[in-house]
Task: inverse folding
């Protein structure tokens, strides 16, 4: 990863709703630092993936993570760096760790995910936002649930299993 | 290239034995690389027609052409809103999706796949854009190495003249995002010089079969036929095993 950013806080976790709640709470507590919140799909890439035609084929975990990296590159360029340069506090939710955990849970090499996301600035602080995997099912605001749905459609049991494995990866020290 | 893990030994053996079966034609991946204006598309079409007449089952895949990701790239190119990293990552995602949806299934079924540009296009263009070679290369893991890479070699001047004769190069094609030159033709000439420089390094490193693309079309086509005949009997590359292991695992999980 690039040099540490001393005003960047990364929130990671399986539940998009919980990440949003925590990001807003930090922003409220530290409003004098003019906080900016950067959330996934700010680029709109995933919204467009959802609108793709039926014959376009289902993306694999690797393809989804490349798309997440493209989305994060957009967030770094258009949201995170400008806010940091302006001296503001930035809360990125999710950031790098969620993607690494999801990649690992789907059987990809965690080192590969780290390498492709190496352009992202190192945060001052990382926070894991705990949530039960059951609560993440159906949470369309969450990166993890979105990817699980892309991979396994309506197969809720398999989705839940993957969310639980991602959670377990995130909780590893 | 990481070795397949112990858990993937069984699929790896299945893959090796699938491609070792000499009772049927094995899948072949032939890629056409080179700068714009080098005549790749013309030669690809001639080559495909000839292969079909020789009884091959032929499929074609083209750069930045997946139904899923092409529209995403197209809309962002139109608004000139891509950084180097975003450009590179979106093309890698498009590539991976086509490899999984089109290329690997066709090769598994014994088809001959012609790729009009492959991962070397990304390495040449993205590195010419100033990105790190190793980072760009990592985006394309697990690698699927072609059986033959035909590299269509032309000078920057020829490429510029041929492209300019047909159209004004688009913003990203001309590399205006990196050269910052307002005139598209002038920018193209500068950018393509860098791209060709990268291609030439790749040609040596990855043992491309070089075609002199300054020669007449018919002469190039006959040279390609001859070079293909000399190369098609190469054994299947075990270095491609991880790409197949991952593809088969994804397919199985979805079933």
Result:
């Amino acid at each position: 990863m690039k040099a540490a950013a001393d005003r960047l806080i990364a929130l990671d976790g399986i539940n998009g709703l919980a990440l949003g709640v925590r990001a807003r709470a930090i922003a409220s507590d530290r409003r004098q630092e003019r906080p900016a919140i950067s959330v996934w799909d700010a680029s709109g890439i995933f919204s467009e993936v959802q609108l793709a035609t039926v014959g376009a084929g289902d993306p694999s975990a690797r393809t989804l993570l490349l798309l997440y990296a493209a989305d994060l590159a957009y967030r770094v360029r258009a949201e995170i760096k400008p806010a940091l340069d302006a001296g503001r506090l930035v809360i990125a939710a999710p950031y790098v760790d969620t993607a690494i955990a999801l990649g690992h849970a789907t059987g990809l090499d965690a080192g590969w995910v780290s390498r492709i996301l190496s352009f992202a600035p190192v945060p001052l602080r990382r926070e894991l936002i705990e949530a039960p995997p059951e609560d993440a099912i159906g949470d369309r605001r969450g990166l993890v649930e979105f990817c699980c749905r892309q991979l396994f459609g309506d197969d809720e049991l398999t989705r839940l299993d993957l969310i639980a494995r991602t959670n377990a990866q995130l909780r590893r020290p | 290239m990481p070795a397949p893990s112990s858990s993937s030994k069984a699929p790896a053996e299945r893959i090796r034995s699938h491609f070792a079966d000499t009772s049927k034609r094995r899948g072949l991946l032939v890629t056409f690389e080179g700068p714009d204006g080098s005549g790749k598309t013309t030669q690809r079409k001639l080559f495909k027609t000839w292969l079909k007449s020789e009884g091959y089952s032929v499929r074609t895949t083209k750069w930045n052409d997946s139904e899923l990701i092409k529209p995403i790239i197209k809309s962002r190119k139109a608004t000139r809103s891509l950084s180097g990293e975003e450009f590179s990552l979106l093309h890698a995602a498009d590539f991976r999706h086509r490899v999984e949806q089109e290329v690997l299934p066709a090769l598994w079924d014994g088809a001959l796949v012609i790729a009009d540009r492959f991962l070397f296009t990304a390495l040449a263009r993205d590195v010419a854009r100033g990105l790190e070679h190793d980072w760009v290369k990592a985006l394309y893991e697990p690698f699927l190495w072609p059986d033959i890479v035909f590299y269509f070699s032309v000078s920057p001047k020829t490429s510029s003249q041929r492209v300019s004769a047909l159209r004004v190069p688009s913003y990203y094609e001309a590399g205006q995002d990196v050269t910052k030159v307002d005139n598209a033709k002038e920018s193209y000439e500068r950018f393509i010089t860098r791209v060709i420089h990268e291609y030439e390094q790749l040609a040596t490193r990855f043992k491309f079969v070089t075609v002199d693309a300054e020669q007449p079309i018919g002469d190039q086509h006959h040279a390609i036929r001859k070079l293909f005949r000399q190369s098609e009997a190469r054994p299947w590359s075990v270095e491609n095993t991880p790409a197949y292991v991952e593809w088969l695992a994804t397919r199985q999980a979805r079933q």
Chain A has a mean pLDDT of 94.
